[in-house]
Design a protein that fits this description.
Blueprint: E1 9-10, E2 13-14, H1 19-22, H2 28-32, H3 34-42, H4 47-53, H5 59-64, H6 71-80, H7 86-98, H8 108-112, E3 115-117, E4 123-125, H9 133-150, H10 170-181, H11 190-205, H12 208-212, H13 221-228, H14 247-257, H15 260-277, H16 280-296, H17 303-329, H18 332-342, H19 349-358, H20 368-379, H21 385-395, H22 400-408, H23 416-427, H24 435-439, H25 453-465, H26 470-477, H27 486-494, H28 504-508, E5 529-534, E6 537-545, H29 549-560
Antiparallel strand pairs: 1-2, 3-4, 5-6
Length: 563
């Protein structure tokens, strides 16, 4: 791209790197000027011109080289040569930063700060890295105030179509950040470093939503803020409102690098926003907006349909924006709000479930009152199943000795699935030695509702998830095959579901067990049935309702023990 064989116009004259530059001087004075001639060669100036003019370079030359093919190499030569005044060398550094993109890529930072290939194809440190420590300090001290000034403008306003025009401050931001993070350090003056860091933070916080989306940056805004640290995100909670488009990214930044006061402010801001979305005023405003949108687009909708449209907007704002952000940030204000919302019977069940999911990992595990509030949701017979399931999961995050006794109180609820979910959570915390304790809480007779999936599920946890050898598990289960109580017996029998043919003898003796299975109403969804071969056509199957333990063994267990 920046080839050594290119030709350029310099000072209005087309001069080549020809014989005049390669002619040997025979005097000692010519030898003394060899270093100067080398610089002029890099700049495309003949040795004769060097002798006549001393290879003078002006600010006009420097700016012109921003757009020429070999310009970057010439600018590096100016920056690194001691014969030029610091003012000109600083201007050359700014020219590298301003240099337009070539092939869609801005190369200036490579030549100034990072690494680049010289005209011979060799890797070289950026121009600043080639300077002595003192010279570099002086140049950087002059350069940073210029960058700071260029960083002050806010991002340009979006077009009516929502497009974002080019942000002309981006090259200066990228250069400033490159200076700040370079190792070994290029900014050695503490005051200069503080000035640059402050300017970069101000840039990041001004027009955050537009700048975080700007893909033209060499260093992303989030990357820069994570490097700058907690001070860079202090103002972000104040940006949160109903018009904020990237709440998720704000929450992620504050979660990862914010200090505790900033996280608390973000938690409060999210509560304010959530209350806004649930307010009568917001709903009325959105209803008006939706009606205007429908009229403009010739959409016919009655009041019920408009209300459904508004409800969808509210749902998206809460479940896709606020709840995920609250989960990331946590904080007492958000946690309290989520608990209240999840326990509000007037809110949609799906949103209550998602509010409980947002509490995952954020509850105070040492707070018994918090456990009680979650348990109140779980034991409420009016709570939708999905909400109760979420409450059970959150209970499982508290100490076992706290929540297990509470879950055992749900041994005979109006909905048998409530016990199933609660007891499966209990069982997942136990060891083989505790199986007798668990069995003692199961339904004793067919008078308690119990679906076929319940004992099969408990048996699966013991067989597949509990620690221990298969022989030890079998030994723990076998005593309950002959239990006088129905629940333990059904769990023990279910342990052999899809088992080995060699184990059929364990269950075969129960094929004539006439003990009745639990009976349920149709709405209870706890029937006992298996697919069995059709009479007269064994290649096809049909569902068979089971009435006794023996039928469960004969038609369900034994046919599935074929390994």
């Amino acid at each position: 791209m920046f080839g050594a064989n290119s030709r350029e116009r310099m000072g209005g004259t087309n001069r080549s790197r020809g014989p005049a530059c390669s002619r040997r001087a025979s005097t000692e004075s010519a030898r003394a000027g060899r270093a100067a001639r080398s610089l002029c060669l890099a700049l495309g100036v003949s040795a004769l011109a060097l002798a006549a003019s001393g290879c003078r370079v002006s600010e006009t030359d420097v700016k012109r080289w921003e757009t020429t093919q070999r310009g970057p190499h010439k600018l590096v030569a100016v920056i690194t040569h001691d014969k030029y005044p610091l003012e000109l060398r600083t201007e050359a550094a700014m020219s590298l930063i301003r240099m337009p993109a070539r092939g869609g890529v801005r190369h200036g930072i490579k030549f100034l700060v990072e690494r680049y290939k010289d005209e011979d194809g060799e890797d070289r440190d950026g121009a600043l890295g080639q300077l002595s420590e003192e010279t570099r300090r002086q140049l950087v001290d002059r350069l940073v105030p210029l960058l700071v000034e260029e960083l002050k403008p806010p991002p340009p306003a979006r077009t009516p179509e929502g497009r974002l025009p080019p942000d002309l401050t981006v090259p200066y931001k990228d250069a400033g950040f490159a200076l700040l993070i370079h190792e070994p350090p290029l900014v050695s003056n503490d005051a200069t470093k503080a000035e640059l860091k402050s300017a970069l933070m101000h840039w990041a916080q001004t027009g955050f939503e537009d700048r975080v989306e700007n893909g033209s940056q060499q260093y992303g805004l989030e990357q820069m803020m994570r490097t700058l640290g907690s001070d860079s995100v202090k103002i972000l909670p104040g940006l949160v409102n109903e018009n904020t488009a990237r709440i998720d990214r704000i929450a992620s930044l504050i979660k990862d690098i914010g200090d505790e006061p900033t996280k608390l402010e973000m938690s409060k801001a999210l509560v304010v926003l959530a209350d806004k979305y649930n307010s009568k005023e917001w709903l009325e405003t959105q209803t008006k907006v939706v009606k205007e949108h429908n009229a403009k687009n010739n959409v016919k909708a009655d009041d019920t349909q408009v209300a459904a449209q508004v409800d969808k907007i509210q749902e998206r704002r809460l479940t896709e924006e606020v709840f995920p952000a609250m989960k990331k940030i946590a904080g007492r204000p958000s946690i309290e709000w989520l608990i209240r919302y999840s326990g509000d019977a007037g809110k949609p069940g799906e949103r209550r479930k998602l509010s409980l999911a947002a509490l995952e990992g954020n509850l105070d595990k040492n707070n018994k009152d918090e456990l009680e509030r979650i348990f109140a949701i779980a034991r409420n017979n009016d709570s939708p199943d999905a909400v109760r399931d979420g409450a059970f999961r959150r209970m499982g995050e508290f100490p076992k000795e706290w929540f297990v006794p509470k879950l055992y109180t749900l041994g005979d609820p109006p909905k048998w699935k409530v016990r199933w979910v609660a007891f499966e959570i209990i069982l997942s915390t136990m060891t083989l030695k505790q199986i007798p304790e668990f069995m003692g809480h199961l339904p004793r007779t067919a008078g308690t509702k119990m679906g076929m999936t319940e004992p099969l599920s408990y048996a699966g946890v013991i067989r597949d998830k509990m620690d221990g050898e298969a022989k030890a598990k079998l030994d723990a289960i076998l005593p309950f095959l002959n239990s006088k109580e129905l629940g333990p017996k059904l769990v023990a029998l279910s342990w052999f579901w899809a088992g080995k043919k060699a184990d059929v003898h364990y269950v075969q003796s129960h094929a004539d067990d006439s003990a009745p299975l639990p009976k349920c109403e149709k709405d209870d969804d706890c029937s006992w049935q298996c697919d069995v071969p059709k009479a007269g056509n064994p290649k096809e199957t049909e569902a068979r309702e089971l009435k006794t333990v023996g039928e469960f063994v004969k038609y369900c267990l034994v046919p599935n023990m074929d390994k």
